[in-house]
Each structure stands twice: as structure tokens, then as C-alpha cells.
Design goal:
Elements lengths: L1 E6 L6 H14 L4 E5 L5 H11 L8 E2 L14 E7 L3 H10 L2 E6 L3 H20 L6 E6 L10 H11 L4 E2 L8 H8 L4 H4 L4 H13 L8
Parallel strand pairs: 1-4, 1-5, 2-3, 2-4, 5-6, 6-7
The structure holds adenosine-5'-triphosphate and magnesium ion.
The site of magnesium ion has 5 residues, from α1.
């Protein structure tokens, strides 16, 4: 299955989520290919650190989608990290994707930009004469203080958006995400007992649940 992790806005957590999902798949023995289409090449950098530090399993990160055919992805998972800084890359990714997963920080501006991003994905699919991939959104960087209303408000607003499925599993705003990433580790590797690890495991399980049903 080909999963694009994308958003219109910068800094929503695309690279953090792509990396953690890819490592999660690899440690569960699901073969995974990672594509980093962002000119910042963040995933290349984190995979390099991971390899230098000798952490297993290593991640193979490519920036060239040309070799990626849907048929090849039938028995592999593919994660593509792309933003609108690379529109051509986004179109290529959307044309191949089974689904687009959108991390949304809790704010009204992020809800608006998610609406615009849905339109961009639809246009990209039409431009390539492809069926629109499934669109899924979840909240990333949720405020860990329940008194803050923005997360609940953002959740309600996302539920109202047409053409989008809302994933209730969310990731909180937690330093473990930043610290683990800079060391080349997934959150559940650096701190397996942390809340960040539990949240990431829950999100990955929801997104990849069908992999555990075989027959
Ligand atoms: N759940 C989280 N909790 C705390 N920090 C987070 C979380 N998710 C992401 N971050 C931090 O937010 C910043 C942006 O995240 P990231 O680089 O993954 O976003 P991005 O969407 O890939 O950004 P860009 O658009 O620049 O590629 C990073 O410093 C990252 O460590
Ligand atoms: Mg990024």
C-alpha cells in the first residue's frame, strides 16, 4: 500500500510521522520503502544518523518516485513524505497513492489549510487522470492540557470537512518526538514506556491494521 504523508502547511509533523511509521513497520517485519520528496531532505538526514549510530533496522530512503509502480507496492508498504514545496513531486505521489494521511496541528489556520490541501490533492489526481486517493486526517501536537479547547474544536471542524476521514488516534505535543528524531530513533525505541510511544503505536495500528490479517 502506498501512503503519502502530506500537508499544505509546513511543520505539521510530516517527517516525524513518516519516520516513526516507517520504523514501526520495519520493526514489525513489514517491508517498507521510504520516499522523501521534500527539498529539505529531512528523512534522508534522519535515516543517515540512524545508520551511522548503528540502529537496526535501517531505513532505505529514496527521492526518485520513477521506480515506484503500484504493482511493486502490492507486497510492500510505501511511505512518501511530501509537502507543497515540491508540487511536481506531490502530483506524482498523489497519482500513485492509495491514501494521503494529513497530520493537523490543533488550530483554525490548520483546518483551513487542510481544506485547501484536499482541493490540491483532488486537482493533482485529476491532472494525472487518476482516482483520488483516500484522505485521512489526524491531530498531531495536541495540547496535553485538557483545559485547552483548541484540540476538541479542531477535531470537530475536521469531522465536518467533506472528502476526509477523521482518525481519532492523535499524537500529543511531546518532547520525546523531537528528542528521538534528532537521535535517529522512533519514539517507541527511545522511550518505549512513554505516552508518545503509546500514541504512536495506536496511530500506526489504526493505519496498518489490515497488515495483521492475512489469509
Ligand atoms: N507530536 C509532536 N510533539 C512535539 N513536537 C513535534 C511533534 N510532531 C512534530 N514535532 C516537531 O515539530 C517540528 C516540525 O515537525 P516535522 O519536521 O516533522 O514537520 P514537517 O511537516 O515535516 O515540516 P516541513 O514542512 O518543514 O517538512 C519538528 O521540530 C518536530 O520535532
Ligand atoms: Mg518535513
Amino acid at each position: 500500500m502506498i501512503t503519502v504523508v502530506g500537508s499544505l502547511k509546513g511543520g505539521t509533523g510530516k517527517s516525524t510521522v513518516s519516520f516513526n511509521l516507517a520504523v514501526w513497520l520495519a520493526v514489525h517485519d513489514f517491508p517498507v520503502d521510504v520516499y522523501d520528496l521534500d527539498p529539505q531532505a529531512t528523512l534522508h538526514d534522519v535515516a543517515e544518523i540512524r545508520e551511522e549510530e548503528g540502529y537496526e533496522p535501517t531505513l532505505q530512503v529514496s527521492d526518485d518516485l520513477r521506480g515506484l509502480k503500484r504493482s511493486r507496492a502490492a507486497d510492500r508498504e510505501v511511505i512518501i513524505d511530501v509537502g507543497t514545496a515540491n508540487m511536481a513531486g506531490l502530483e506524482e505521489a498523489v497519482a500513485r497513492a492509495d491514501r494521503v494521511v494529513i497530520p493537523v496541528p490543533p488550530s483554525q489556520a490548520d483546518v483551513w489549510s487542510t481544506q485547501r490541501f484536499i482541493d490540491i490533492v483532488e486537482r493533482a489526481a485529476r491532472a494525472k487522470k487518476k482516482r483520488r486517493p483516500e484522505l485521512l486526517a489526524f491531530i498531531n501536537r495536541a495540547d496535553t492540557n485538557p483545559a485547552v479547547r483548541e484540540t476538541a474544536e479542531t477535531q470537530e471542524a475536521l469531522r465536518q470537512l467533506d472528502g476526509l476521514k477523521f482518525v481519532t488516534a492523535r499524537l500529543g505535543q511531546r518532547t520525546t518526538f523531537r528528542r528521538s528524531f534528532s537521535e535517529g530513533l522512533a519514539v517507541f525505541e527511545l522511550e518505549p514506556r512513554s505516552k508518545a510511544a503509546a500514541e504512536m503505536n495506536a496511530l500506526a495500528t489504526v493505519l496498518f491494521s489490515t497488515l495483521f490479517i492475512q489469509g
